[in-house]
């Protein structure tokens, strides 16, 4: 029988580096990893939570779930297998998953998947008005199923209209919350290893542009195009709890990477979910009670010929991994 090989620290360091390329709320990168005796542990970094915007830790946990999926894909691309145990019994509340990285025999590397992890980014510039075909939306929604997550594309005109009204109301509520605004301002326009630099936020919006969650930035975005082509996908589960959020984060990563492979752009739209009354109403009147919504994703096409965006900063590996 072949002898099982446990991943050495050098491989684990590389995998965690890929995992930390995952998207996170306000680029807070709210995760910590520990590798000991062949076991890699993912913890929520509660020092990076957003108590005003995300008091229950939903967005924090979804962010960590996305990093967990990034790690699994990177391992497979480098020829390793992963055994994941989510919310291991007996662990403290910050432990989200244990991962064993191993292999019975060397496997070929998949460079295209590694390149995909490096390529994925959040482009907040406006979408074009080219419609996203329904079959592409259905393909993206199918990416959620292996993770036990529900996904629904909001394509019905009536549902889209209700969602737009609810999203605008949620944004108004958030704008009136001084605590939330102050918390957001701490993560926007930063110049260090986390947060969202002003260079990656669109400039002053024109009168036709949809309202933006963030204050204007420095990114050139001058085309006069309505957001007519974008669509919204809702991700969620049977329950609005930590186990569901973690799975939703994994599904979000899988969907986003597949969208990137197809040339589509994805932008999370979490603010309607952050207002509890709005979240419940989206579940009732937009999703028809099919599942509890955890996050909304805007999906659309960016303009052909646009230059690529610089990557958002990432914390040094030594800050996030103990090995």
Automatic annotation (TrEMBL):
One of its GO terms (molecular function) is oxidoreductase activity. SUPFAM superfamilies: FMN-dependent nitroreductase-like. NCBIfam families: Rv3131_FMN_oxido. This is NAD(P)H nitroreductase.
